[in-house]
Amino acid sequence: MRDTTVERATPVEISDESLGEILIRWNRMFWWSGVRPMLQRMVAADLTLAESIVLRSLGRGPLTVAQAAACLMLSHSAASRAVDRLVRDGFVAREENPEDRRQKLLTLAPRGVELVGEMEGIAVGRLEQMIGVLSNEERGQFHTLLSQILLRHTAQLAENSGNLPCQVGPFALEDAAADRDDELITKR
């Protein structure tokens, strides 16, 4: 039987932990407070994890089926089955790609937009509760640090991985790379 007791530590014990140990605690809290409720909503909507990933990726912009397959790290046929179900259930629209008529372009249908917004709203609401224990000044510091982590990591992904079909974070990789290039130009 699995131990379900919650590991509690005093503020002094936590402050003595390494950054790695604190990140493990943060990850657990993030999972239980933000990700788990979002996944519960996904299950309530009768979505598989693959379908949820496709929806959330489409929330950041249109994809082809091949790009969706790359996001999922699945074969084209497996991704196509997930997409077929999302189209059938009214979450995704599939249209001819105006740039290549042989391809289909996937976008969120209104029902998909609503569900993605609801799922992300659940996660964000729970995470806002977590950081609600911070003072205004601490929230400002947290915001600044988190923004820097996102910007730098996304730019690093773009630099190391090129133009990935999946969109990471709050913006597409190519947008982060363009922002980084603009920043380098203005600093010169």
Describe it for me?
With 188 residues, this protein is mainly α. It folds into two domains: 10-133, Winged helix-like DNA-binding domain superfamily/Winged helix DNA-binding domain (Arc Repressor Mutant, subunit A, Orthogonal Bundle); 135-188, no CATH class. The chain has helices spanning 11-15, 19-44, 49-58, 65-72, 76-88, 110-131, 136-161, 173-187, and strands at residues 63-64, 92-97, 100-108. A three-stranded antiparallel sheet has the order 1-3-2. Helix 3 (49-58) packs across helix 5 (76-88) and helix 4 crosses helix 5 (76-88). The protein is elongated and about 60 Å long.
Show unreliable segments. 2-6, 168-188
How is the largest sheet built, in terms of strand order?
1-3-2
Mean pLDDT over the full residue set? 80
* CATH architectural designation of the largest domain: Orthogonal Bundle
Distance between the termini: 61 Å
Organism: uncultured Thermomicrobiales bacterium
Protein name: HTH marR-type domain-containing protein
GO molecular function, one term: DNA-binding transcription factor activity
InterPro entries: HTH_MarR-typ (IPR000835), MarR/SlyA-like (IPR039422), WH-like_DNA-bd_sf (IPR036388), WH_DNA-bd_sf (IPR036390)
